Amino acid sequence: MVKWHPTGYRRWISSPTGPILLLVLLALVGDYSSRGVFAASPLPDQGDVLYHAASVSSNAATRDVDSTYFLPNTTVPTHYSISLRTDIHNDVRTFSAITRIYLTVLAPTDLIVMHVQELNIASVALYRIASTGGNEIWIDSPTYMIDIVREHVTFRTAGMLPLGNYALEVAYTGSMRNYQSGYLVSRYRNEANEWRSVGTTHFQATLARRVFPCYDEPALKATFDLKITHHRTYTAIANMPLAGTDIDPNDREYLVSRFERTPLMSTYLLAFAVTDFKTLRNGQHEIVVRSNAQDDAMYALTVGSTILERLGSYLELSYYDYMPKMTSIAVPDRGTGAMENWGLVTYGEPSLLYSPAVNTYRNRKRVTTVIAHEYAHQWFGDLVSPRSWDFIWLSEGFATLYEYLATRLAEPGDEYWELFSVEVVQRAFLQDANEQIRPINWQAATQAEVSSLFDIIAYQKAGSVLNMFRNVLGESEWRQGLTQYLTDRGYDAATEENLALHLQRAVEGKDILPPTANVRDLLASWTDAPGFPVLNVYRLYRDGMMILSQERFLEQSVLPTGHVWHIPFNYAYESSATFYDLTTAGWLSSRAAKLETPVPDDEWVVFNKQQTGYYRVNYDRRNWDLLAQALMANRNAIHRANRAQLIDDAFNLARADLLDMAVVLRLMRYLRAERDYAPWYAADKVLTYLYDKVRATEHEHAFLVYVDELIEEVYATLSVDTVGQGESTLYKYLRQLITGWACRIGYKDCLERSRAALRKELLPGQGESSVAVHPDVRAVVYCYGLQQDSAEEFQLIFQRLMASRNQAERTDLIDALGCARNADSITSLLATIVFSAAPDTTFVYLSEERNRVFQAIYSGGRAPTLALMNVLSDPVSVQQLLAIVGEGTITNAVMNIAQRTNGAEEMARLEMMLTAMNGILPPGTLNNARDTAAARPQWFTTAEGLIVGEFLEQYNLP
């Protein structure tokens, strides 16, 4: 699953605008109904601080769980027969159903316990299934009791049930929601601009119980028969192909769609949808989409078919050997997530739809990798499910790895794999350096505990560790082990031990691992302990001798640990720069060890080639100096992935007080000659962090001079406003990063080109034709083209937002609008949020877009942030916005503003805003914001701050 972003609860308001918002709204409205639809691309925000939810599960190293949440093992399911009726065509958000659960009694009992959530049970009947066949025999109408905390329903029979097979039939009704919970409703506007409602499902992790009583644990697999009664103007789809359609005998306006029986699978993978969508087919691969988005689905139809076929060849297990078809459905207004239901994958539209006319290279990359992620799940998660949610990483870790690797199989020469280290490994490091982080294997019982497991540890860390073992074991042996693992555990569930067993068999007798080592122990050292190590390389500079040691890496603290990781290492050095030979040179399986190497004492050395190992590396000061000198002399002497690794490791080591920050800043000076994206991605995080610290302080000018030194030569090779034929994806990533910094620090050429390109598209001169800005450069052009007083262009972009049906494009346009420096434009944009809550409004925002508006504004620069602060300083406006977007969105905005506050003047403005919000937000929230802002100047009294300040002083010299 690619995580969904659920919709929050919003309320109607009686008074549509506050005083400040009302003053400027009419300047924005205009006549947008007749405008065309265009697109923009956002500058990705690096600094957004989300306070409503944690991005990882923060836990102690071990814990006990409440086993009463687990079902007893006295009965197990074998088959479900579900008949469900829906009136979603009329936006009716209830459904009725009859489910018959076929089960086996394993131990004599008078209690049948399964899961249920918010279902209204009407009747229950129990039948005996004779072992010799024949008709089912009615036994009883069991009584039942529901535990709403554990979400258990206990059916009590009149007498003890002996071992054998039974069927429990339950009739009930349920309700639909408009976020990811069970059977849910989505709305979209059709070609006639009419609102239409459709129904889809989302059952992971513990939500199947919202639609039918079931054994809702992943290991308790069964087969499923499904019938759906729906209006004849709509169509039903499900995991399996349609077996037939009958006219409902009770109402000829309704049809009964019957589906083929599924193979054995977990309850959370059952899926269906009832829509008025169209189906596009490429053999057994099909895309289901609203009719006014069919063209946008063509890319997914093609690339998805290829990915599915190539993954099957890679694993030597064709998908179609297990399932007869693959359907992907684009669900409107469902965020950007996706869910891997076997045979029916559901996506938020931005993760499946791509239009080259309006969407960017980043949108294309997302669609490609999300499809690869969900299709990898068809084997890892669907064919073989985790035995319990404790092992969810066996599903999500593999899917994360293959969302990148599978694109190499399907798109030869594509560069998405190049992003794996920076987007997966380095992202995992940031979260995994927390003292309270959980290990990969982690027990969960309650619904909240299970939900918390779907985090960066299960996805990015597990994917990184799996990739490390892929490299250690070798591609051939790795694939052989996976094929045997999937074959052995097919239609069943698995644990880490099952995976390790088959990987071990694949490497037996091949001299790949140390003689006394085995995969299970090696793997467990990474999955059973929280965090990750830093490999310290201390060179003796005496005939190549080195001392290697390991310790747990933590972002801001030192925590003694007795845990020892089995660290596979390799290295390259100046006269043997073998960066493409990823063979493991050795293992550090103790706290420290002395290593004899052939590295000459006057040459640099780099450990962890191409950053395939999941650990950071620190060196003695002399080796860091040698590396900095080497990069300045010839950056290509060191592999681009390791150049990115050096910057990322050095910066984070310095943040943890394990290295001098001046080493980082000196190391980065080579970037003036850097032309690869990965090192610049790592450097961008450093520059963003430092700019956040020094903006509006005495060090800002020196910092800007430093950035100018780094980007000047690279900027000269790039085009701000045009896209050439044959540009690579990574070149486009690099251009957006460099031109974004150029405009941010005030390059006249960048700002003028952005402004001119924006006007040529939106407001061409008399007699001139409009020249559309290419989607792949719109992020910078739109954002910085709006930096001047550009109210007219702002209005035109807003009108395009309101007219657009492409959700990814709409997000890009919102991000562009948030860059505007015109305070009235920002205020009027916020006013549209208020008006969007009125009945029959023409201001249409999708579920998460109102929150996105706030994020775009406080991420758009100081001028739009000040305009937002002005609105939040008006109590009436705040209360009305609060009623629509909820307290979480306003709290996030306040905290992010505080996180961006520097200097006495900005602090005074912040205090004015917080004072005006007394009685509106909780005192604790307001005080947290004050404390956050007040603590920021203290950075300049730390060693890190003083070192950075001292380094930057040289750039203030005449």
Notes on the protein architecture:
The chain is an alpha+beta fold. Helices cover 38% and strands 19% of the residues. It contains 28 helices and 30 strands. The strands form eight sheets. The chain has an eight-stranded mixed sheet with strand order 5-4-8-2-1-11-14-13, with no helix packed on it. It has a five-stranded mixed sheet with strand order 16-17-18-20-19, with helices on one face. The longest helix is centred in the N-terminal third of the chain and has 18 residues, at 298-315.
Distance N terminus to C terminus? Answer: 56 Å
What is the helix content? 25-40%
**Spatial strand arrangement across the major sheet:** 5-4-8-2-1-11-14-13
Radius of gyration: 29 Å
Mean pLDDT score: 90
* Assembly level: single chain
Summarize this structure briefly.
With 958 residues, the chain is an alpha+beta fold.
Topology:
Blueprint: H1 19-29, E1 75-86, E2 94-105, E3 109-115, E4 120-129, E5 137-140, E6 143-147, E7 152-161, E8 164-175, E9 182-189, E10 195-202, E11 223-231, E12 235-238, E13 242-247, E14 254-259, E15 272-275, E16 278-282, E17 285-289, H2 298-315, E18 326-331, E19 338-339, E20 344-348, H3 361-377, E21 384-386, H4 393-410, H5 420-432, H6 447-452, H7 457-473, H8 475-489, E22 492-494, H9 496-507, H10 519-527, E23 533-539, E24 545-552, E25 567-569, E26 571-573, E27 586-588, E28 592-596, E29 605-607, E30 616-619, H11 621-633, H12 640-655, H13 661-667, H14 677-694, H15 700-715, H16 729-744, H17 748-762, H18 778-785, H19 791-803, H20 807-817, H21 823-835, H22 849-858, H23 862-872, H24 875-885, H25 887-899, H26 903-916, H27 923-935, H28 943-953
Helix pairs in contact: 1-21, 2-3, 2-4, 3-4, 4-7, 5-7, 7-8, 8-9, 12-13, 12-14, 14-16, 15-16, 17-18, 18-20, 19-20, 20-22, 21-22, 21-23, 22-25, 23-26, 24-25, 25-27, 26-27
